[in-house]
Amino acid sequence: MTQQAAWWQKYGTLAQMAQATVALLGFVAILLQINEIRTSNRASSARSAFLGYTDLAFQNPKFAQPDYEAIKAAGREERSQYESFVSYFLYACEETFAAFADKREWQASCDYDLKPHLPFLCEKNQAQPAYLATYGADTQQWVKTSLKTASVAPPDCKLGKT
Fold this sequence. Notes:
It is a single chain. With 162 residues, the protein is mostly helical. The chain has a domain at 45-150. 75% of the residues lie in helices and 0% in strands. It has helices at residues 7-59, 61-64, 68-74, 76-99, 104-114, 118-127, 137-149. The N and C termini lie far apart (93 Å).
């Protein structure tokens, strides 16, 4: 003889399944929230890095729009400061590219600011190829493409009238 299940046994199983479903949905919501926080933090960090670069450019207009020949002639200290300036600029752009891959205006801003630094990057890459290797593959490709587009190439590494 089969016994029919009592109503609490029948509905108890449904309640347990509902509880498990709610717990799973809660876990998924937490994962989505963590991802959103990570994305927001990355965007905030990128904005801060780019703002820092902009402030540095404001404080050092001779590096933001450089006369590279004059910087080379000025001496080791100024060349070192300029190299640090360009490194900070590349880092800021690398961060913004990663955080705002879908926003073309960040790429355009970095493209605009990169152009006057191409002679330095050309010479630096020719003398020390490991310099560009300190940046991510996307940044390396961006710089190399920009060098080709502007026709800046060894041995003279001069910026043309493009």
